[in-house]
Structure formats: structure tokens, C-alpha cells
Amino acid sequence: MIIYGINPVLEALRAGRVKELRLSSGGAERGNDRLRQLLTLADERGVRVRRVPANVLERESRRGVHQGVVADIDEGAEFSVDELVRGAAAAPLLVVLDGIEDPHNLGAILRTADAAGVDGVVIQSRRSAALAGAAAKASAGAVAHVKIAEVVNIARTVEELKDAGLWTIGLAGEAPTSYDAIDFTVPTAVVLGAEGAGLRRLVRERCDHLASIRMRGHVGSLNVSVAAGIVLFEAVRQRTRRGAS
Asked: Facing residues of 24 across strands?
């Protein structure tokens, strides 16, 4: 799997997942402290570094913002949904993505999920953006740390999570219940739908509750990654408050 950009590559190095680095033969690290830090860590980890022409980086990153570095990383550990649930230190908090096909949104959600300390993210193997490239860049390196389970059928997975004792909360703009009225201190899976289309019918029907984020302006909806951040940090707020009480 190929990733690019200083932050994603640096986090992948810290996670021990980088197999090879490729840097611009023009010496992009001169005057760049972060690239020098990256090279120092690669040397400490025994990671091979190759110098290549800038056009090679352009091609491998598909003209993404590579910042002078591209890396081959391993695919990472494979997790089942059951492993995500059982691996939680407290009441599980998972994110389930129903067809997020924009890599920038996927990456932003992974970054938020990592920041909120979720126990894992579930994606569909066919209806999801690839984890490499633009998604990894948008995640600012979180893709190297977040536990991810790939499944074939999201609706079936929602049922599996319910059987495991999690409450499944789907976000839907027209839902009468506000997200902040939901109790997120219990084992919870937040289910997010695709850009524009939202949750698919079978997935919606299988969620325990549907919740919405009230819009107070002229625009009728939020970007899915922004919605994920609002709801996940509401869960963090509730769980922190309960832990302090």
C-alpha cells in the first residue's frame, strides 16, 4: 500500500509499518526539519530509503501533495468486528461507515476517530474509498493507528453489533431525535452514511435509533466527516463527565 506526505509517513514509521521510503533526488529535506526527523526515524528503524526523480513521486502519489516523500507500507493487522468489540478497554465506541467513497472524507473521519479514541472503524470492502493515497494523507497519519475491520455487508454487521450488546445509532438529517439526547456512555456504534445519499434503507432499518444534528443556518446538512466529529466528541464529553462523577 502506498502513502505519501510527511505526517502520514511519519506516523506509519512510528507504527512500524513502513517497508521502504522514496525521497526526491533533489534533496527535499534541506531546510525541512520535519523531513530530517522522518529520515532519522527511518534510519533508527532500519527502513530502506531510495532517492528517485520528482516525477516518480508525482506518478506514485497520483499528483497528490506528497511533500517530497512516498512510502510503501504493509497492509496492517486485519481485525474482525468481534475483535474490535472485545478489544475495547471500557464500553466500546465504534464507527460504522456505510459507503463512504470520498477518500478525503474517509481520511478525515479516521483522523477524528483516532482523536476521539474510538475502539475501531468498520468499512465495507466494496463500497468504500481505498485506505491508501488521498485517504491516508487526509487522515494525517491516523490510518496507521486506527483499528479497521472490513466487512462485506454493513446491514448484517449492524445486526452483529446489536447481538454483541452495542446500541447502533444512525445519523440521519430528518430524524426527530437530536444527537445530544442519545446516551453515548453505553456500548455504542455510530453509523454514518454516504455523502449525499446518507444511510441505505436496510442499514437505517437495522439501527436501534436514528439521530440528527440540528441545522440553524441556510444549508441543510453537514459534511459527513464534520458530522462524525460532532457526534464522536459528544460521546467523549458524556463519557468524560460520567467518569468524573
From this structure: 52
**Cβ density class 191-214: b for 16+ within 10 Å, e for less:** bbbbeeebbeeebbebbbbbbbbe
Residue after which a domain boundary falls, among 50, 73, 96: 73
How many structural domains is the chain composed of? Answer: 2
Provide the residue range defining the domain that includes 57.
Answer: 2-73
The domain that holds 51 is classified in CATH as 3.30.1330.30
What are the grid coordinates assigned to 229, written together? 466529529
- In order along its 245 residues, the chain shows pLDDT tens digits of 889 999 999 989 998 999 999 998 776 666 678 888 899 999 999 999 999 998 999 999 888 888 889 999 987 778 999 999 999 999 999 999 999 999 999 999 999 999 999 999 999 988 789 888 899 999 988 999 999 999 999 999 999 999 999 999 999 988 999 999 999 999 999 999 987 778 999 999 999 999 999 988 878 778 999 999 999 999 999 999 987 55
Which residues are registered as beta bridge partners of 13?
none
Partners of 203 in beta bridges: none
> What cell does 37 get?
526527523
What is the torsion angle, in degrees rounded to the nearest 10, for the CA atoms of residue 7, residue 27, residue 76 and residue 123?
50
Instruction: Note whether 52 and 155 are same-domain residues.
Output: no
- Rounded distance, CA 151 to CA 120, Å? 13
Count the neighbouring beta carbons within 10 Å of the beta carbon of residue 1: 17
